[in-house]
Predict the structure.
Amino acid sequence: MIDYFTLFALPKSVDIDLLLLEQSYLRMQQVLHPDNFVGNIAEQQIASQKSAELNLAYKTLKDRFSRIDYLASQLNVDKQSQPQELLVEMMELREQLDDRKLTANDIQQSIDAEYKKIAKFYNDNTTINFASSYARIKFLRRLRDYFL
């Protein structure tokens, strides 16, 4: 399977140029669209499959968390692992949530800050810190979604 970043000629990074992603996607979609192969069933089926793969790659890279999840997979990060310090933080945040000392805005600010950290960890090639930050983002997103 081709690397999604390579497919769209983008540098492999947490932060990407979404406009370049969209432009590349639209250009490729024009070429691969199954309607371009009417009359040739075999080519139309291949184009349909390639178009579906392109759509999945685009959807994955367009969403910030999906992009990080994809990078985590490429780094072989154990996505179920949670560092001990995160477990303690999770309990504290849940208590704050129960006591109404935590707002949705607070949670979103924490998520945004963690996205900045994970980008640095990826760029610095520090997989252990990336994995820890990934676990924290997953937890904060679940907490935010529960809160809202």
About this structure: The chain has a mean pLDDT of 89.
